[in-house]
Each structure stands twice: as C-alpha cells, then as structure tokens.
C-alpha cells in the first residue's frame, strides 16, 4: 500500500461507508479499508462517537469523522464539480436528496422497516409476526417512498438524479435503497415508487455498485 493512500475505517454493511467508497472509486482515488463495526472496539481508537465511516488521511494528525466532513474533504481535494455540480440549482437538488436520505429514508424505512425485520428474523419470529410488528410503520414508509418518487418529477429523464451527471445525491440514496430492495417488501416498494426503481435499476449496473456489493445487507440477504 502507498504511504499516501487514504484509509476508510468502516463496515461493508454500512450504507454511509459504501457511499464514501463509491465516491473514491468514481474519482479513481486509491484507498484501503479497515473493517470496523459501529461502536466496536476496533473503531474506538478513531472516533469517540462510534459512527462509521472514518477517513484516515496521510499527513493529517486526526482521523476525519462524520460523512459531511469527509464529503467536503473529497470535494475540496479531488474537484468539487465532479460530484457536486457547479450550478446552484443542481447543488440545491443534491443537498435536498442527501438531507432526505438522512432524515427520512433512514428514519422511516431503514429504522422503521428494515432493522425491525432483521431483528425479528434473527430472533426466529414467524413471517406473520414480523408483518404484524412492522405494519404500524408501513404507511409512513410508503408515504416516504411516494415523496421520493414525486421529488424526481415528471420531467426527470436521468439516468442520474441530476440528469446526466452522477452526484453525491445518487451515492447517498443508492446504498439504503439496495438494502430495502433486498427485503420481502421489495415488490411493494418498487410499485410505490416506480421512478425511484427505474433510477435504481440503472445505478445497480455500474461498476461502483458492483464493486462495493460484498458484505452489504443486500448481499447477505441474497444468501438466505
């Protein structure tokens, strides 16, 4: 490994770790990965908050923590217009989608549906019991997907969220959607947000997606 190479400390199953990995892959920036789960002993030397990813940059005394900080560093170091558009309107769109992923996709879909399902499956619950448990959260989850679908707009032609340019918006949205589409509820999610599903189908064919697939929740569920 080169002494100037970046290091990502994170877990393959972490969607935010996957976002940063895909960004560096897209920019052709070499890096290595140290596997560490959130709040693990392996992670503790790098951050007091227990969150992944962490970016280790040669020449910087302190680890770089928080996805926003890492994203800002990548933009500033490797060319902001490559993942963050130059024009203000597109920048607003990118920031909107990043905010929605953090505030709504995770709260209403990942923590509302995916994580409770995973927990109950590991406890050996029946499918009927799982459906009953997640039913109260399903309406909000589907409403969130409908809002995502509407946000793409009737004029959206893609293939990316901001049209022809791959941006941070795509890199933030894809990992949690990959995990959600691996659930038994996937067909319902696809039907509820067909434009999101169409966008997803294009993105999953990219080398960025394929190269960061191993170890993800989606990959683990495919083995069940």
TrEMBL record:
It comes from the Eukaryota. Residues 4-82 form the GST N-terminal domain. Gene3D superfamilies: 1.20.1050.10, Glutaredoxin. InterPro entries: Glutathione-S-Trfase_C-like, Glutathione-S-Trfase_C_sf, Glutathione_S-Trfase, Glutathione_S-Trfase_N, GST_Omega/HSP26, Thioredoxin-like_sf. One of its GO terms (cellular component) is cytoplasm. It holds the Pfam family GST_C_2. Residues 87-224 form the GST C-terminal domain. This is GST N-terminal domain-containing protein. The lineage of its organism: Eukaryota, Fungi, Fungi incertae sedis, Mucoromycota, Mucoromycotina.
């Amino acid at each position: 490994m080169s002494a100037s190479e970046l290091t990502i400390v994170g877990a393959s199953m972490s969607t935010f770790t996957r976002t940063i990995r895909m960004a560096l892959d897209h920019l052709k920036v070499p890096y290595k990965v140290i596997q560490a789960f959130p709040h693990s002993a392996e992670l503790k030397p790098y951050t007091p908050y227990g969150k992944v990813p962490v970016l280790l940059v040669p020449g910087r005394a302190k680890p770089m923590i928080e996805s926003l900080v890492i994203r800002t560093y990548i933009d500033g170091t490797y060319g902001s217009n490559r993942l963050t558009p130059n024009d203000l309107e597109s920048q607003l769109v990118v920031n909107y989608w990043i905010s929605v992923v953090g505030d709504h996709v995770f709260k209403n879909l990942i923590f509302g549906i995916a994580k409770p399902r995973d927990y109950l499956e590991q406890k050996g619950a029946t499918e009927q019991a799982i459906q009953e448990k997640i039913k109260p959260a399903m309406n909000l989850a589907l409403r969130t997907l409908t809002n995502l679908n509407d946000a793409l707009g009737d004029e959206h032609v893609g293939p990316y969220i901001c049209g022809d340019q791959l941006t941070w918006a795509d890199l933030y949205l894809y990992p949690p959607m990959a995990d959600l589409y691996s659930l038994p509820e996937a067909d319902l999610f696809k039907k509820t947000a067909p434009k999101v599903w169409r966008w997803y189908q294009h993105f999953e064919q990219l080398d960025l997606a394929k190269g960061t697939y191993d170890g993800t929740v989606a990959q683990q569920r495919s083995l069940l």
